[in-house]
Amino acid sequence: MSRSLYPSDLSDAQWTAIEPLIPPAKPGGRPRRVDMHEILNGILYIVRSGCAWRMMPHDLPIWSTVYDYFRRFRKEGVWQRIHDALRTQVRRQEGREESPSAAILDSQSVKTTERGGPHGYDAGKKINGRKRHLVVDTLGLVLAVVVHEASLQDRDGAKLVLQRLQGRFARLSLIWADGGYAGKLIEWAKDFASWTLEIVKRNDDLKGFHVLPRRWVVERTFGWLGRYRRLSKDYEQLPENSEALILLAMINLMSRRVSKAV
User: Fold this and answer.
1) pTM of the predicted structure, to 2 decimals
2) Which pLDDT score is estimated for 131?
3) Tens of pLDDT along 102-134?
4) Could you give all domains of the chain from N- to C-terminal order, each with its CATH number?
5) Dihedrals φ, ψ of 164, to 5°?
6) What's the pLDDT tens digit per position in 170-187?
7) Helix/strand/coil for 234
8) How far apart are CA 69 and CA 29, in angstroms?
9) Helix, strand, or coil here: 225?
10) Using CA of residue 251, residue 256, residue 261, residue 262, what is the dihedral sign?
11) CA separation (Å) from 179 to 143, 167, 189, 201, 261?
């Protein structure tokens, strides 16, 4: 790499962890001539800096090529597979089983822009935009993500993200959530996949800010995502692109953890 490095660039150790997970060029077509390390650097520059695709620096690959790989790999499920493989490596590194037995559920409402696409008004948070529904393990690593309009009630949005867990984590039996998910969702989770949905309630007798058991784990994950400026709002027209950017932020975070353990 002859150019000057950007803070968002993948280190050589990170690339060593990710490179085996990049699919080869499809047979029969034009040979792949781009440097996939630089393609990833271009995508992460967008995610970390928050700039528009067309504003990508000229010493990175041309923006249209970078965006084409971002979009193509999203449609083919490549980002999801890379993300899940790295999560497995991090869990092994921490001495955990590949499949978690417990998880935490929560959502975050963010504003959208004039870009368009599905959006709605969250009356509780007074935000016109979308919600990011996450399920994370006890390390804060993402198990599933769904982005939907903010007007959708938490209990309905939770069903969307919980459905993405079905059949993927054999050991999962317990999910913690806050009081906004109480009610019929508890019975639904039990009927849907025999999960126990445990509500972590706030103690009304305590004044001021207090860390709630288990809930702080998913809040920390939202904090990690907050380091990536492209996620400060939802700039994407397609919710699927928003979900892919969240996976890429976690890929960056987890590849750093894996590379430090090598």
Assistant:
1) 0.93
2) 97
3) 999 999 999 999 888 999 999 988 999 999 999
4) 97-232 (3.30.420.10)
5) -75, -10
6) 999 999 999 889 999 999
7) strand
8) 15
9) helix
10) positive
11) 21, 26, 15, 6, 38
